[in-house]
Write a structure and sequence with these properties.
This protein is of the alpha/beta class and 358 residues long. It has helices spanning 21-24, 42-55, 75-87, 102-114, 128-134, 172-189, 191-199, 201-205, 209-229, 244-253, 261-279, 284-296, 309-317, 346-356; strands at residues 2-8, 11-18, 35-41, 60-66, 95-100, 120-125, 139-144, 147-154, 159-163, 329-334, 337-341. It contains 14 helices and 11 strands. The protein has a 7-stranded mixed sheet with strand order 1-2-9-6-5-3-4, sandwiched between helices. It has a two-stranded antiparallel sheet with strand order 7-8. The structure holds nicotinamide-adenine-dinucleotide and zinc ion (ZN). Nicotinamide-adenine-dinucleotide is lined by residues 41, 43-44, 47, 68, 70, 73, 100-104, 106, 126-127, 129-130, 133-134, 137, 139, 148-149, 166, 169-170, 174.
Length: 358
Amino acid sequence: MKKILFKIDGRKIPIFVGHNVCGKASISKYIDYKDIVIITNTKIAKLHLKKLEKSLKSFNVKTLIFPDGEKYKNISSLNKVHDFLIKSKFNRNLTVIALGGGVIGDLAGFASDTFLRGVNLIHIPTTLLAQVDSSIGGKTGVNHKYGKNLIGSFKHPVAIFIDIRYLKTLPQKEYISGLSEVVKYGAIGDRAFLRWLNTNSKLILERDPDSLVKLILMSVKAKVSVVQKDEKESNIRAHLNFGHTLGHAIESSLNYKGISHGEAVSIGMLFASAISVEKSDLKIDEFNLIENTLANFSLPVRIPSSIPGAKILQNMTYDKKNKKGKINFVLLTSIGSCCLNDHIDDRYILGLLKTFQS
Ligand SMILES: NC(=O)c1ccc[n+]([C@@H]2O[C@H](COP(=O)([O-])OP(=O)(O)OC[C@H]3O[C@@H](n4cnc5c(N)ncnc54)[C@H](O)[C@@H]3O)[C@@H](O)[C@H]2O)c1
Ligand SMILES: [Zn+2]
């Protein structure tokens, strides 16, 4: 089992990574009082809740189980958590445990930050995406009818337990979607890591335990290092949006149906890499390495032909991360090194979108 310390706001948050870490690292060490609420969903509860509850036998544990799905990451579910916590008469000594993927992590994280102005939170991420991305960095929130993640806060947990055991039950589509963010860390920050992902793709796709631990550790270190330097995204945290400008626009053009976040980001990363070749001197063999790594993981790199280019362009222009209506791209100057560019001509983008449509 490995331990990474995430230093933020004068605190040191331990992140445990390995096999059966929930047993080995003893979650109870990070729970100050008796009361615990585990928040999860029906699917994860069926697979993994019993074992966790068993390891917390000495506490007063209650469980709140939501239906599965992004559509439940909303204000109504947040209200349900609050109602439950208030009716159960919990006080500020409560610890909330988020057992799940990014949906549960974001909802439970936000609820723990808002109940009685904040109680302790522990993340036990169960998807690859949550293990390498959403459980780290403090962003919490719910969706609003006008857009995704519009209501939320920054709230860091007291500890994060990343157990590769959970990945055994994860559907392959979800697993591959998480790999897209892993490729991102290589592309924006670490050429050797990207090469390793490329040459070990078969083992990684088979979920070989040693490869899993390595890729999670490398990804967690990458995210921690960026967030430690820029928690509130005033500069380099924005690099984590590599591939997301187009990725988000594709997702919203399709009303978040039929394509996963990771798949959309994969297309977006190759698109940003293509712009980078022309506008920021990314070498063609570096572009090829990115394309090849994504292809090895069966991640898509073409935009679905059903989406009109003009719609994608419009959605990119309205992305909430843009300033003054300008489309903001994270580009690569080489693998491992990024720059931001908000002055790419619309006509150029439209032309390139066409060449990316399958
Ligand atoms: N807070 C952040 O910084 C941040 C970053 C990235 C994404 N997000 C958010 O994360 C969410 C997406 O997260 P996600 O991809 O984990 O989706 P998810 O939470 O919906 O999980 C994907 C699917 O896998 C199932 N699942 C989870 N763990 C499982 C397991 N071990 N075995 C079998 N099935 C399992 C879930 O029930 C669900 O059906 C989005 O809402 C996104 O906005 C947040
Ligand atoms: Zn993402």
